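Structure ticket #2291
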Amino acid sequence: MNIIRKLSILLIAVSAGISAKAQDNGFDVFVPIAKYITQGNAEALSAWFSDNLDISVLSPESSYSRNQSEKILDTFFKSNTPRSFEITHTAGSSNMKYALGTLDAGGENYFVTIFVSFKGDTYSIQQLKIERRD
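Resolution: structure written out below.
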């Protein structure tokens, strides 16, 4: 019985190690997110949204559903066609990360802030801000 218990504990420890390692396996969550912002593809970007997220697109921040947030971004991208998007800074821990970037869209420049969280085995955007750069 002791051997089975020890093997069970070992399997749990190994599984936890593999799961923790999967978070840090070199995957950069901001690569696909940046690609969709550059493309102005609100639909593809919304796949990364949390069910409810805080979003601010040239307005005060508020909490919206995934579908509402997609519509807000789609409206923005239709009025401000992205020409380029560059992430200028990233930081965070294994379960929460953020990125700062600059967006050139519709002939203007914007600051973009993105917060993502890691829950279970997926990343999701918790907060997205797009602010006009003066």
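Closing remark: The longest strand covers residues 108-119.
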